[in-house]
UniProtKB/TrEMBL annotation:
The lineage of its organism: Bacteria, Pseudomonadati, Nitrospirota, Nitrospiria, Nitrospirales. This is Glycosyltransferase RgtA/B/C/D-like domain-containing protein. The chain crosses the membrane at residues 24-44, 158-183, 195-217, 238-258, 320-338, 345-362, 368-388, 395-415. The keyword Transmembrane helix applies. Keywords: Membrane, Transmembrane, Transmembrane helix. The keyword Disulfide bond does not apply. It comes from the Bacteria.
């Protein structure tokens, strides 16, 4: 925290008796602002943007609840998983089960044919994540910087998934809760949250891995001061290590077990990824990984300019989302560098592992990808905006504004069937 912030307390958002509820009311207020950006973008899109090649319907709630992968997630809740062994056909075994489980539970009392039933959980989890993130940010940053970090989190391009029937807001919430538990020294609680999260999406296993590594490092530091053979001391910790690892990876392990029992193939969810146009063999993917082939070698800026100059956006959506994706990865790298000494090392470990796994996905799949949403759970980078605010406040404000503008752009194009997220 900067000395200037220590000397001059920030202006409070709430006055009088409401002041003690600021930790809840302020994130709710800012969450409402983020929803306003999304809704405004959707309205502009429906009224002023030509229909794209993935246009679904004029019914906004139906689009938000069923467009793209959302319908496959819901099919898990209504029909169960399916896998016929054909890795070249998109099947719902590719998707992790947690959000479908939430939908299934809601389906006991409400009709899953009602799009609102599918959307309300995402909106609710997004709201909870905003409150939890603000608590996390205030525990590590000054209050004003925590507000800036919260704004960056809520205005991030891809925040439209707060109102889409996707597990994004749920994954964000679970990642935040796990990180909060870590800084509070509650490792088993962190393992619980990360274990649940590992059933929400494949990249969430890097949160689980970070929790286990954090525990292992702490145990190693402790054992160095305990007399006796290090081998014997480690052996005594192995049962505890196994239990913690099982808890941290419980959701992922359960999904593997289910596939083994139901389809006699615990890795069916990996095999089906070939339906998204795998980028050759292992060596080709390694080459793509190190030379950024699926990111910067496709002349996206030139195609984007050509689409604009020809007065049509019918084919520019791929270039828009690739450019935004590349921009966000550069921003994420910069923010991680800025905050490298301001946040716990295991926060940075989680971010780097998650982004590394994501980058491998980018290298492995050549087909079009809705990508920006996949790195939304990298929560530590948003804390970096708060750290940036303490050093370069104007730059931090500008970055948040850019986030909001891109969020607006993505919302208006998404609703009309452009694959920009």
């Amino acid at each position: 925290m900067s000395s200037a912030e220590t000397v001059s307390p920030p202006a409070t958002f709430m006055k009088g008796p409401l002041r003690k509820y600021e930790g809840i009311l302020y994130p709710i207020f800012l969450y409402a602002v983020s929803l306003l950006i999304i809704v405004t973008g959707i309205w502009v899109g429906k009224n002023y943007v030509a229909r794209g090649w993935e246009y679904v319907s004029s019914d906004t709630t139906q689009v938000l609840a069923t467009m793209w992968d959302a319908k496959r997630l819901t099919s898990i809740a209504t029909e169960g998983y399916s896998w016929n062994g054909d890795s070249h056909k998109i099947q719902n075994i590719a998707y992790f089960p947690l959000y479908a489980v939430v939908e299934k539970i809601l389906g006991v009392a409400f009709s899953l044919s009602n799009p609102l039933t599918l959307l309300v959980p995402a909106i609710f989890f997004g709201l909870l994540s905003s409150v939890a993130f603000y608590r996390l940010a205030r525990s590590l940053l000054g209050e004003t910087s925590a507000r800036m970090a919260l704004a960056a989190y809520l205005f991030y391009p891809g925040n439209v998934f707060f109102v889409r029937a996707y597990p994004v807001s749920l994954m964000n919430l679970l990642a935040i809760l796990a990180l909060l538990a870590l800084i509070e020294g509650k490792i088993w609680r962190a393992a619980l949250w990360s274990g649940i999260g590992s059933a929400a999406g494949p990249l969430m296993v890097f949160l689980s891995l970070s929790v286990v590594i954090k525990w292992a490092v702490d145990q190693w530091a402790e054992l160095k001061h305990v007399p006796g053979s290090m081998g014997a001391k480690i052996a005594r910790k192995l049962p505890l290590a196994a239990a913690l690892s099982l808890a941290a990876f419980s959701g992922f392990a359960s999904f593997l077990l289910y596939q083994a029992v139901a389809f006699h193939d615990p890795l069916a969810f990996i095999r089906v990824q070939e339906a998204w146009e795998k980028s050759g063999g292992l060596l080709q993917r390694v080459y793509n990984f190190f030379f950024l082939k699926n990111m910067v070698a496709q002349h996206h800026p030139a195609h984007f300019v050509q689409a604009i100059t020809h007065g049509s956006i019918k084919h520019m959506d791929m270039h828009v989302h690739y450019l935004i994706n590349l921009f966000m990865l550069v921003v994420f790298a910069g923010l991680l560098w800025v905050e490298r000494k301001a946040v716990p090392w295991h926060f940075l470990l989680f971010a780097l592992l998650f982004l590394g796994g994501y980058w491998w996905f980018m290298a492995s799949v050549s087909g079009i990808k809705a990508t920006v949403r996949l790195i939304y759970p990298v929560i530590p980078v948003f804390l970096g905006v708060g750290v940036l605010r303490e050093r370069h406040p104007e730059l931090a404000r500008a970055l948040v504004i850019v986030f909001a503008v891109l969020s607006f752009l993505e919302s208006e194009l998404m609703i009309e069937g452009y694959w920009v997220i």
